[in-house]
Amino acid sequence: MNKDSKGVVLKNVSKIYYDSKLKKDFAAVDAISIDIEPGSFVTLLGPSGCGKTTTLRMISGFESQNAGDIYIGGEKVNALAPNQRDTAMVFQSYALLPHYNVFDNVAYGLKIRKIHPDEIRVRVSQMLEMVELSGLEDRMTNQLSGGQQQRVALARALVMRPGVLLFDEPLSNLDAKLRITMRTEIRKIQSTLGLTAIYVTHDQAEAMSLSDKIILMDKGKIAQMGTPRDLYFRPASTFVADFIGEANFLKSTVLEVNEKSVKVMYNKVPIEVESFGKVTKGSDCKLLIRPESVQLKDEGILPCRVIVSTFMGSYQYYQVETGEQTVIITEYNPRLRKTYKAGEIAYMSFDTQDLYVL
Amino acid sequence: MSQSASLERKKLLSDPLLVVTIVGLFLFLLLFTVYPLSILLVDSLYVDKKITVSVFFRIFGMPGFRKAIGNTLKLGVITGFLGTIIGFLFAYVDAYVNVGSKTIKRLFNAVSVLPVVSPPFVLSLSAILLFGRTGLITRSLFNLSTTALYGLPGIALVQTLTFFPVCYLMLKGLLKNIDPSLEEAARSMGASRWRVFMTVTFPLMLPGLGNAFLITFIESVADFANPMIIGGNYDTLATSIFLQLTGAYDKSGATAMAVVLLTISMGLFILEKYWLEKKSFATLSGKASRERILVSEDSVRKPLVTFCTVVTVFVLTMYALVPLGSLFKLWGRDYSLSLKWYEYVFKNKGYRVFTDSMTLSAIAAPLTAFLSILIAWLVVKKNFKGKGFMEFSAMLAMAVPGTVLGVGFIRGFNSGLFHTGFLQGLYGTGAILVLVFIVRSLPVGTRSGIAALNQIDKSIEEAAFDMGANSAKVFITVTLPLIKDSFFSGLVTTFVRSITAISAIILLVTPKFLLITVRINEHAEKGNYGIACAYATILILITYTAITLMNVFMAKFGGSKKIKERKYE
């Protein structure tokens, strides 16, 4: 870990806006508390309007919180202006200064810190090398492709050696293929330099591939905070399960709760499940089934009728009906498997460890 | 010729109405914009059947004329600087600073609109009422009988206050176009607010500021009415031409002077258009991705907002002085209320003055609106030879000072086309006044028409063609309804510009027609400020009514906006 990297702590931070249409206040960010360790990569994930960008902008100092405290590297930064905080931000629009060339864009912050020109030259060229832009120092920014502009923006933030690196949906203006290349590169550079990074995105794939920890937000609150695996396999709510990956929910009832498993009843079929959230005996619950964890067989646990069956190449896509509910199933590597046609009766078969009750 | 080009031409020729329209428009533009300007050059260089520059030698030999050139340029630079700076401060406060009060913002807005709806010399009148020989402040407050106002200080003051709102609106648009994240990026890299302003905002605005300076410069150089009323002995090119023509009856001298003024104005215009427009960065950074966080620090906010508020209140007071000036018995001596100036106005053919002005402007307005939309449509949607020339000649008048156009029309038509007697009948009629109004407003209308048409998805019209409509049908049933807002605003703009116009028509008007602006000029020159104010007040009421009607109409029937919005969904 880089010794300059700083942790970020938010304590009960809120941001209230006045909604002029509804004529009342609403909380864009509602009393959230976060603890980000130095050197870790954390994403703020969520649908638009969930408060993730507002949170990032409060950390950078562009917005001021209405309540709560923000600490960067243990220092309370509530009253510090953006230029006084040890953060550097990569913007969605890149925000490259159009009247400067690549070199001057990257050198901008260093010049403000009154760093010696010789050192500036060295640091800028090191950084440009790192983002594979060596030789383009004299180009104006409008002569660069979208991906190159993105790299300049990244270099400009990295060259500051900030205690915390902030990303505001930096890849959303790139095409799909470049997005994947860039996110791998960002992750690589971040872990090489051991920087603390906070990354805002609405793209769950981006969040999963980048993060040590995901903070999933919904309506100004934290829906769940944890590793990508936690969020996928042990979601705290149907919102989380639904937002991350595909999910089928079967409305069931809890029959019994044991130490290592629970038994639930769906459509008169008892099902044993080995991972579960907080459930109590006799209450309603939801049985979470990921589409890839189910296979259709001639015999199995839940009987169903196939409604749609489509060959998708890497998997066979099914929609089946069981009880009153529709379940989506994706059977990967389908070449040697039996395929069922629409209208056929089959059984859903799954491993009891792959289901989750919440 | 390639096959596609020949096919294109055949397609065009298969639409005879379209061809006739194009030819007709070319004739119109050649005759009434290109020809009057060309004849100036011809007449000043071709004397007694030989090409000579003797006329230019003669006028440059006049010390008064050399002085007028110096005066004009000096005035242009001063007004350009002051107008740009004040306009920029207003724009910055509007776009970047948390003003804190909606009322103050509305006042700023009023200041930006007032010069559009009021005749060009209103501020001269009120400056005289305030600071003139019998001014409220100079005479009544400080008991001075000073003539310091008349001349450069007066013109510069009045022109700055008249033209800075143009800079304000223009620079506001540019400032709002700067992506706030540029400034935020600089902030996040450690730059202070001042540093951000100096290294990001200001450099990005530099081409825009240069542009604003040049546009104000051009306006100042072209301005006739203000130097006439408040200039005293400070002659500018525009007033020199007028005096040379009406005082010294020196037609060839005035023509050559007009060529000099045209050269200066054109030169500035070309500089603005082709050099500065290309350097603009602000649009390059594209659409602002999120709203800007306004500056709330009192150290920035208070001085800026105070300055702009003071200027605003001053300008508003000046506009308010004109109706007040018309209501007092004798400004500077007897401040008792009376309607005697209005009585005077209406007893002295006042009624005819208003009907003449309104009739001529009302004829010019729909013609201009229709012509400019037609030209815009041809330029944007059609392909034909000489398209570039059509756009150029329709926009040409933008760079031509009214006085120059006036001299061009006199030289071009008082002895017929090319002095042959052909079309001589036009001179001295109302028709020639209407033509001048049309030519003067055509650039504005065409520009807004082009902008509106560029918003319309090409496929809408293509669908109509595809279903069998010809060009005329498409224009009337599809294009016109889609851009009726632009058409209507062109209509009202032309009406307002025409009824407040003076520089071009003061040379062309004959005693057959009585025009408000000419009357105001006459009375202001004679020092009858009460009468001038009474005329000006009624004029402001007329233009204000026209613009209010336009806004009401657009709010009620404005369909174009909805269509535009739908396109972006």
What features would you highlight for this structure?
heterodimer; A: 358 residues; alpha+beta; five-stranded antiparallel sheet; 8 helices; 20 strands; B: 569 residues; two-stranded antiparallel sheet; two-stranded antiparallel ribbon; 74% helix
What can you tell me about this protein's structure?
The complex is a heterodimer of chains A (358) and B (569). By secondary structure, chain A is an alpha+beta fold. Chain A has eight helices and 20 strands. In chain A, strand 4 (67-72) and strand 5 form a beta hairpin. In chain A, helix 2 crosses helix 3. The longest helix of chain A has 18 residues, at 176-193. The mean pLDDT of chain A is 91. Chain B has 25 helices and four strands. Chain B is mostly helical. In chain B, helix 3 (54-61) crosses helix 13. In chain B, a hairpin with a 2-residue loop joins strand 1 and strand 2 (50-51). Classes of the chains: A alpha+beta (358), B mainly alpha (569). The A-B interface holds A 60-63, 81-85, 87-89, 91-93, 95-99, 108-109, 112-113, 142, 153, 156-157, 160, 166 and B 179, 181-182, 184-192, 195, 199-200, 203-204, 281, 284-286, 289, 293.
Brief write-up:
By secondary structure, chain A is an alpha+beta fold.
SSE topology string of chain B: HHEEHHHHHHHHHHHHEEHHHHHHHHHHH
Query: Biggest β-sheet of chain A, characterized?
Result: 6 strands, mixed
The gross shape of chain A turns out to be elongated
For the report, how would you describe the main beta sheet of chain B?
2 strands, antiparallel
Instruction: Note the total helix count of chain A.
Output: 8
Helix/sheet category of chain A: alpha+beta
The side-by-side strand order for the widest beta sheet of chain A comes to 6-7-8-3-9-10
How many runs of DSSP E, i.e. beta strands of chain B?
4
Beta-strand percent range of chain A: 35-45%
* Spatial ordering of strands, largest sheet of chain B: 1-2
Radius of gyration of chain B over alpha carbons?
Answer: 25 Å
Category from helices, strands and their pairing of chain B = mainly alpha
Strand content of chain B: under 5%
Low-pLDDT parts of chain A are none
Q: Determine the mean pLDDT of chain B.
A: 84
What overall geometry of chain B do the principal axes of the alpha carbons give? globular
